[in-house]
Please model this.
Amino acid sequence: MKYLNILLFLMMIPFLGVQYNDPDGPMWILIYGVPTVWAGLAAFRLDRVLSNDASAALSISVAVILVLTGFYWPNTPNFWEKDVWWTTETAREGMGMMISSFVILVTTFYIWSVRKN
Model:
């Protein structure tokens, strides 16, 4: 699981980088940065995320990401098709939130499984 978190951490870094020219880039850097940081901490500093304070912060992060995923869920028909998401920003944003949710949930389950042992 450590290697999966390394992969997820490295996968999320380009998400942060492509936001530099987006008008609402700072907001999306924050949104994508949260799962990126948690995946990086789980991969490289696991001891720092096993405390109760970190667990509370992680739970809040997960809740916020899941709420935002529901908020940004694309209502565009066939949003997963390349012709749609290539031209429709709301479809791209929704898919980005889905990826962020996946990353933070994988990381959360890993951290919680380590805490149980």
Remarks:
- The radius of gyration is 15 Å.
- The mean pLDDT is 92.
- The chain has one domain: 2-116.
